[in-house]
Amino acid sequence: MLPQYLPSTGRPYGREPTIRFGTNTYERHGSLRNAIVKKLMGKNTMLYIAITFVMGFFLVLMLSGTPPEEPKSIDPVVKSQGEDTTKLSGPQDVKVGNHMDASDSWLFKHTLGGLVRHPDIVVNDHPDEDDTNRMRRHSIREAFKHAYHGYEKKCFGEDELKPNSNTCNNWLNQGLTIVDALDTMLIMGLKDEYKRARAWIDQHLNFDRDADVSLFETNIRIMGGFLTTFDFTGDHMYLEKAVDLGNRLLKAFKPKTGIPHAMVNLKTGASHNFGWTGGQAILAEVGTLQIEFSYLSHLSGNMEYHDKALKIFEVLVENRPETKLFPVNIDPETGHYSNSIVSLGAFGDSFYEYLIKYHVVVGKAISWVGEVYFETAKAILERLKGTTKPAGLTYIGEMQGGHVSRKVEQLSCFAGGMFALGAHHAPTSALKEEHMEFAKGFGEFCYEMYHRNPTGLAGQHVFVNDQNDFTPPSESNNRFFALRPETVETLFYLYRFTNDTKYRDWGWEIFESINKYCRNENGFAGLRDVTEENSQQDDKQQSWFLAETLKYLYLLFSPHEYIPLDKYVFNTEAHPIHIFDLKQKPRL
Fold first, then answer.
1. In sequence order, what are the residues at sequence separation of 6 or more whose Cβ sits closer than 8 angstroms to the Cβ of residue 203?
2. How far apart are CA 86 and CA 334, in angstroms?
3. At what angle do helices 191-204 and 131-155 cross, to 10 degrees?
4. Catalytic entry in 180, 193, 217, 292
5. Is 482 a residue whose pLDDT tops 60?
6. Which range (66-75, 89-98, 362-371, 395-404) has the least confidence?
7. Sorting pLDDT into bands at 50, 70 and 90, what band is 420?
8. Catalytic annotation on 349?
9. Which pLDDT score, from 0 to 100, does residue 94 have?
10. One of 33, 136, 198, 221 is an active-site residue; which one?
């Protein structure tokens, strides 16, 4: 049940923009108009009516910039500039309407006709903007439209498109691509795509399903998508679905230690861990719930989500080894670590990311989380950091039983952005300099993982050597590129914090390679072997490609004022979460 201060019906949250007049502040439209007229005319009723009409007309003209759009057809279509109108093969009973009850004429470019409530969300072209950056951003937007329209035409309402066979893939059964891509649509100003997506979620997405789902994946992709889109739009439908989903995910928290199970049935509440882990919990999964669960508590008023998620951090920190690094597996019944493998790649990655991001997103209100992050970052630099020969590139290895290997996963390339963000919030100038220096060095290593291959794309991992810095794996099944976002995520952070344009150039180089080798008639797919220019594609358009890869690339070429890092923290699926104060009621 939603708290009393959270309306369940009516206009979405958020106040109308205010305008100054004299010494008073007025709501947009009526009160400003009335104040002006009353100052001029007093109680003369006829003149009051006449001037009210005239001034209202001219206010609309001044504020609009573009005429109101006509409501779209209830039959969902794919329609954009320069493209044919094509029927979708998805649900034909999706009705698209003006659910926001907002005028499409007011500051259209900044609010998409009232769909969003913050002016720093929708990226707009600036007249004094560099033409190259504008062109690159438009190209990335076009790539998103190509990918999403291919999904809409064939798999609307399914999880993901298989673009080479032009079939569909379901593994969460939650319309994954739709929810994961929602905020990217808003940031890119894709109003029509967003409205169709919103209508499908409202009319078709139901979590009362007798099926097991991944707690981790459902949280970062579906919950994250709902929370961000609610913050962007103020549309209560997303928060209601987030609360419903959150209550179902809580059923995974059965072990007495507070470490949740990996899988949960959304209908029955039954939960279990993976058999292939021997029933052990995975660090990256249980340590990547805290941002979303705490923000859900902030918005809903139910602190249970926050308390359970923070309890996980407490258990993980209480039992960590003396190295201050965290092994990748935990016994959910005891809370103790069950192996000695330490990795910022698979099974470990996003836990480390969430230490600093959680510290920032709650306004640094839980100080011990920040302290743990900086202790852990110090241990990473002391124990896992290495330097290649002959180029002197900086990298992060993996550790098992105290031995550090020279294997570097592409998944770990997020850490350049993590260290850059940590440097921005470091308690001392010396720490800031040290962490930023590492962030830039590792960012360059990850870029070289792309740049040195004939395709300009990176495989799953490389091995550091003393002859030529590193080499790709010998086994071909680890030389594939899965449309991954981690390196461009780091380039985004590095550019935001340094303004060094080389990071934009590197990002554009990666995008051009993706567009050349991964694009096909129906969308985008991964590449099977990045070391072969004639390599075949795989058959999966990952939802993270639309949620993360293209979003980070798009924002890399956008002015800093959009999704500013002093107001937002990106969850591990690149859904921006507004920095909040747990002690205060939200601005609903």
1. 91, 93, 94, 95
2. 56
3. 30
4. 217
5. yes
6. 66-75
7. very high
8. yes
9. 56
10. 221
CA distance 486 to 498: 18
DSSP 275: G
Q: Which of 486, 489, 529, 548 is catalytic?
A: 486
Q: Which two tokens stand for residue 538?
A: 């795989």
95 contacts 203 by C-beta, under 8 angstroms: yes
Q: Is 62 exposed, middle or buried (0-12, 13-18, 19+ CB in 10 A)?
A: exposed
The residue behind tokens 């050597």 is 465
Return the SS3 of 238. Answer: helix
Question: According to the model, what pLDDT value does residue 510 have?
Answer: 99
pLDDT at residue 582 tops 80:
yes
Separation of alpha carbons 272 and 266, rounded Å: 12
Q: Which residue has the tokens 């109680």?
A: 43
Rounded distance between C-alpha atoms, residue 571 and residue 415, angstroms: 14
Tally of CA atoms within 13 A in the half-sphere of 516 that contains its CB: 14
Bridge partners of residue 162, in order along the sequence: 167
Distance in angstroms (rounded) separating the CA atoms of residues 531 and 469: 16
Q: What is the pTM of this model?
A: 0.84
Question: Residues 233, 116: contact at Cβ < 8 Å?
Answer: yes
Residue 217 a catalytic site member: yes
- For residue 182, with 0-12 CB atoms within 10 Å meaning exposed, 13-18 middle and 19 or more buried, which class applies? buried
376-412 per-residue burial string, b: 16 or more CB within 10 A, e: under 16: bbebbeebbeeebeeeebbbbbbbeeeeeeebbbbbb
Rounded to whole angstroms, how far apart are CA atoms 569 and 478? 31
